[in-house]
Amino acid sequence: MAEGERFVPEETPVAFSYAGSTHAVMMATPADLEDFAYGFSLTEGIIDDPAEIETVEIVQEDKGIDLQIHLADAQNDALTARRRHMAGPVGCGLCGIESIEQAVRVTPSVRSSPLTLSEDEVVEAVRLLNGQQPLHMATRAVHGAGFYVPGAGLIAVREDVGRHNALDKLAGAARRAGHAGAAGAVVVTSRVSVEMVQKTAIVGSPFIIAISAPTALAIRTAQEAGMTLIALVRGDEFEIFTGAERIVSGPARRAGNG
């Protein structure tokens, strides 16, 4: 037996607090926390636009981090009313889901998005993501999520020990930078759960591309939302589970080529 050193990722409780009241607590990698605050607020339907958050204060506590998120008055009032009608406690403490009703919430349709990708672009999106995950390269223990825009490549990548967290961080980063979800594809290193599909649809992207496999509910939800779900991308091969009509022939588009 030989002694050695190894990098491992940090994992810490991260609380989302609105108007001083804790809404949910996630176990997460303590990085890109402002993006996390914005993305979680977007994908959980607390806000519709980043401008509806006035400030985010990152408060380091003894055993975790509290993201104190200050909303505009209208959004704060709407969240207060939402809490009054909740059947149980605010937040489950792990997954951020407040009730059975929220877990099976209606997923927004992305059917109207005109975005298409070529087979080469699907492969390129995953290849680029595999090369832009420094924390994963160091630890082999985190998930990655990227936003791929045809002709521009990956315009944002975020990592986290939780696959949902990585996607929330990505959503926050992309929207804060002014990128519309309908303009690109969400690319993830994890399996595709129903919540991953829901969050992708809320972001507005008509594509979710994954290295691993989807669940049956994720496939049904993607189909109902009009989303293209591609998974099990291995080299030049992948499987299309829904929305095959958005995959077109032709090479990957390059920046400046339309």
TrEMBL record:
Any one biological process term the GO annotation gives: Mo-molybdopterin cofactor biosynthetic process
Name of one Pfam family that matches: FdhD-NarQ
Assigned keywords, A-Z: Cytoplasm, Molybdenum cofactor biosynthesis, Transferase
KW Cytoplasm (keyword) present: yes
Catalytic site positions: C92 (cysteine persulfide intermediate)
Localization, UniProt: Cytoplasm
Record keyword Glycoprotein present: no
Domain of life: Bacteria
GO terms for MF: sulfur carrier activity; sulfurtransferase activity
Gene3D superfamilies in the cross-refs: 3.10.20.10, Cytidine Deaminase, domain 2 (3.40.140.10)
A GO CC annotation given for this chain: cytoplasm
Sequence similarity: Belongs to the FdhD family.
Alphabetized HAMAP family for the sequence: FdhD
Function statement: Required for formate dehydrogenase (FDH) activity. Acts as a sulfur carrier protein that transfers sulfur from IscS to the molybdenum cofactor prior to its insertion into FDH.
Listed name of the protein: Sulfur carrier protein FdhD
Lineage, top ranks: Bacteria, Pseudomonadati, Pseudomonadota, Alphaproteobacteria, Hyphomicrobiales
